[in-house]
Amino acid sequence: xxxxxxxxxxxxxxxxxxxxxxxxxxxxxxxxxxxxxxxxxxxxxxxxxxxxxxxxxxxxxxxxxxxxxxxxxxxxxxxxxxxxxxxxxxxxxxxxxxxxxxxxxxxxxxxxxxxxxxxxxxxxxxxxxxxxxxxxxxxxxxxxxxxxxxxxxxxxxxxxxxxxxxxxxxxxxxxxxxxxxxxxxxxxxxxxxxxxxxxxxxxxxxxxxxxxxxxxxxxxxxxxxxxxxxxxxxxxxxxxxxxxxxxxxxxxxxxxxxxxxxxxxxxxxxxxxxxxxxxxxxxxxx
Length: 286
Fold this sequence. Notes:
By secondary structure, this protein is mainly alpha-helical. The chain has a single domain, classed as AhpD-like (Up-down Bundle). The protein has 15 helices and no strands. It has helices at 6-17, 27-45, 52-55, 57-67, 79-93, 99-108, 113-127, 129-145, 163-175, 178-185, 191-207, 214-228, 232-245, 249-263, 265-278. It is globular and about 60 Å long.
């Protein structure tokens, strides 16, 4: 009997981790996968089709039947939440070819223009302004085509005087006393980054905004950082942050399932390992 390699072990473990939100399909469900994909693609995409359907129909079918025939029908996320997660992982990877398609899809399934914009704004502290701006330009093209007046209503709640204190309050509400410890132990020449910029910009300018609640902002942050790969310490921190604001292990697993077709297995499995490290599955009933 051949030994299972490291990658095979990871894949097996990953499939086990997904079992809470994506059950193994019965033969009847497999037969229904095409119908589910057609139904969900109509809901999310309308009549829009990919050029791959003509040039690479087998590849397009694999993609569509996984994403729309399986993943879209499982889990705890609403249709609008699925699209917001999709948008932020596309921003994280700068895989923006289909970004306008998914902005339109988000509108179709009930996400408001403000929610879509706030999801992109939420990316900025993690991906940088340039990547967020590239996505905003595409988003605004869709809004203009849809007759949505720009600029959208302002959602900021802080001033120059309050952005640090308000941001710090939100930060500590999520991560607790660990923030004080981080501030106290940071070298003096790093405090501007670790303390001032993080609390003022990331949490003050962004997390305090209206338009998305704290639970959704944390879930989107978790999705963005997971999409990067190689950020395990930050992913584990935001697993804990998600739990602190009321998201569940299942919510995070479902966000990763939604991300999987866009970020691939290695990054997804690494993020799942972080979820298991911080929020292990409940023991199976005997």
